Amino acid sequence: MTKTAHLGSESPAETADGERQELETIGSFRFWFADHRWEWSDQVARLHGYAPGTVEPTTELLLAHKHPDDRATVAETLATAVRTGEPFCSRHRIIDVAGRVHHVLVVGDRLHDSTGATVGTTGYYVDLTGRLDQNRQEVLKETLPEVVAAREVIEQAKGILMFIYGINAEQAFGVLQWRSQETNTKLRDLAAKLVAAVVAQGGGPVQQRTRFDHLLLTVHERPD
């Protein structure tokens, strides 16, 4: 029986090898507060060391994979999200079934039902452990000519992600690619909307970070 939900899975025929490899480091999740039910994308299952469809994610399983030094903090972050319904962002370590340590960024936003009520959280994992090599960067440039043509605005968007989350340029570009594919939005259009929306925001650093987490997951819905 298939246990893991297939959130944001991509077909190998739909993307070049270099892009597909990069997108394997980013995956989606959903969590419903009422019954503590989780859904993991194939990428998140693989990040934890499981073949897609072979494990049913639970809160206990999720916490068991956290690095012992990070487990209590993650548990408190999750408890706060359930209690308040507020978005969250966490950088921590997980240990997969083979014992490999992965440094991850996890961003969660509100999950709404058909009435608009907050019923859970939805978001994504970014595996910060690996980096793109030069060959893979060249593949991306060849298969995504619009990226090269719109370099300036994409570089601005990458810079924002790097500053907000403390990640490197390759990881920031991977996040933009993933949101582009997940929302069926051209990369340069997504980057332009993100930059414009960030410029329009005000408030202090904490407010800006919280708003940016939400913005990253919803900016594709904004009008051009």
UniProtKB/TrEMBL annotation:
Residues 134-195 form the ANTAR domain. SMART domains: ANTAR. Residues 1-21 are annotated as: Disordered. GO terms for molecular function: RNA binding. InterPro entries: ANTAR, CheY-like_superfamily, PAS, PAS-like_dom_sf, PAS_fold_3, WH-like_DNA-bd_sf. Pfam families: ANTAR (PF03861), PAS_3 (PF08447). Signal peptide: none annotated. It comes from the Bacteria. Residues 40-85 form the PAS domain. This is ANTAR domain-containing protein.
